[in-house]
Please model this.
Amino acid sequence: QVQLQESGPGLVKPSQTLSLTCTVSGGSISSGGYYWSWIRQHPGKGLEWIGYIYYSGSTYYNPSLKSRVTISVDTSKNQFSLKLSSVTAADTAVYYCARGRGLQFLDYWGQGTLVTVSS
Amino acid sequence: QSVLTQPPSASGTPGQRVTISCSGSSSNIGSNYVYWYQQLPGTAPKLLIYRNNQRPSGVPDRFSGSKSGTSASLAISGLRSEDEADYYCAAWDDSLSGLFGGGTKLTVL
Model:
């Protein structure tokens, strides 16, 4: 059974960089064929796709966030990461990592982690 | 304002059949698969329907999905109290962007 777990600071100051890591267990990131994904949910709102990194290293980012987002993979640790720069209060959200068997085909999700942007 | 349009709310009584719609365009629903996710209060979303109308193992056959043109629907038959949740449609857009609908809050009366 694949499991994903987000980790990282729960509080980030405005203008700084939000950094989160997703640790995958029960399966190998380097096994191929999957899209490793980040999604966020603003408080009381709907889901927003942030981006994917395909096992080959190709990345796809939400155009509205593209200038500030970087998703990377560390196969040695079976982890993938999200960096979102120049954050504001509008980036306060629950951040989820997920495994994609296809584009938007997200079959396993982490439990989510709340990140608050505040001074 | 989401590119995929869902009604904000839906409701039904136990045993009823309810449907939730998701409207998109030729660049997303019209040319790509539709997925549905169920989010129970305080939990992560869960895949409910994939590739328009397929159910993952463990999802009851009370849940079904369909797609026609640039719209899709999720149907829930034999409504139960535990179906009370938020439901999201999702699709890829040919502009190389992942999309989610705005979500529909289902209330079981």
